[in-house]
Amino acid sequence: MLLRIDHVGIACENLEEKIAFYESTFGVTVVSREVNEEQGVKEAMLHVADGEGGGSYIQLLEPVHADTPVGKFLAKRGEGVHHVAYGVSDVTSALEAIGGTGVRLIDLHPRHGAMGTSIAFLHPKDVGGVLTELVESPPRPS
Ligand code: CMX
Ligand code: CO
């Protein structure tokens, strides 16, 4: 069901500073910057590699305000890994299959993610403390 690690989401206080750190330390490049109001984040995707069905990335996340998932996470735990996101070919069918195993779904239906993706989250309490995201990439131009 899982095609690859699509991205690792990292919570930070200052997006621009963290982008500069990742670029100078690891030689990675920002390929997308977006504000996703629905998710309450200002974010950047930094490209790492290409894999089956899409690329893999580092996703840097700064909250748009304190009362958001990433804002609450920063207040409670400070900066660090916020979630792991796996690439799947079809989020809707993956949600159905995973929901059927008893894992709580935060999103019953896919939402909009970075770079035209469809995303959905699984509850960390049912995944061993790991907030887990499923990502379906848009079809590649042929
Ligand atoms: N990883 C692991 N555990 C987490 C967590 C995370 N990122 N965020 C919260 N938790 C834990 C908390 O530590 C807390 O555990 P305890 O009860 O043992 O203290 C519990 O989950 C509840 O946490 P909370 O602070 O009360 O937060 P909420 O229940 O309001 O929200 C969650 C938690 C996961 C449902 C919410 O963060 C959510 O809906 N996340 C999905 C959306 C999201 O994260 N969007 C931003 C990223 C967007 C993107 O990737 O594009
Ligand atoms: Co993400």
Distance between the termini: 24 Å
Per CATH, which architecture? Answer: Roll
Helix content: 10-25%
Reported for the largest beta sheet, the result is: 8 strands, mixed
The radius of gyration over CA amounts to 15 Å
- Percent of residues in beta strands: 35-45%
Give the CATH H-level superfamily: 2,3-Dihydroxybiphenyl 1,2-Dioxygenase, domain 1
- Summed up, the helix count is 3
CATH topology assignment: 2,3-Dihydroxybiphenyl 1,2-Dioxygenase, domain 1
Shape: globular
**Spatial strand arrangement across the major sheet:** 2-3-4-1-5-8-7-6
Structural class: alpha+beta
Order of helices and strands: EHEEEHEHEEE
Oligomer: single chain
Question: Number of domains in the coordinates?
Answer: 1
Short descriptors:
methylmalonyl-CoA epimerase activity, 40% strand, binds carboxymethyldethia coenzyme *A, 2,3-Dihydroxybiphenyl 1,2-Dioxygenase, domain 1, alpha+beta, binds cobalt (II) ion
Fold topology:
Layout: E1 4-11, H1 15-26, E2 29-36, E3 41-51, E4 54-63, H2 69-77, E5 80-87, H3 91-99, E6 111-112, E7 118-122, E8 132-136
Parallel strand pairs: 1-4, 5-8
Antiparallel strand pairs: 1-5, 2-3, 3-4, 6-7, 7-8
The protein binds carboxymethyldethia coenzyme *A and cobalt (II) ion (CO).
